[in-house]
Design a protein that fits this description.
Helices cover 24% and strands 28% of the residues. By secondary structure, it is α+β, with helices and mostly antiparallel strands. The strands form 2 sheets. The chain has a 3-stranded antiparallel beta sheet with strand order 2-1-3, with no helix packed on it. The chain has a two-stranded antiparallel ribbon with strand order 4-5. A hairpin with a 5-residue loop joins strand 4 and strand 5. The longest helix has 9 residues.
């Protein structure tokens, strides 16, 4: 398993039930095109599975740093 998953919202939550909207928020997503790196564990994989039709997922290798909007690296 990868250390992290990069989850990207690709579809809108408009017209979907509140449970799906809450899951998207809990994953740290704020709108179409937003991405979040989340821990790769059974809980987050279950969350992603519940909203799989709204997101795309890719595995992020361990030790890969993410560049934040202000140019600083985030571990």
């Amino acid at each position: 398993m990868a250390a992290k998953l990069r989850v990207t919202q690709v579809r809108s939550t408009i017209g979907h039930i509140a449970r799906n909207r809450a899951t998207i928020k809990a994953l740290g997503l704020h709108g179409i095109g937003s991405s979040a790196d989340v821990a790769d564990n059974e809980a987050t994989r279950g969350m992603v599975r519940q909203v799989r039709f709204l997101v795309s997922v890719e595995e992020v290798p361990a030790g890969t740093a993410q560049v934040v909007g202000d140019g600083q690296e985030k571990a």
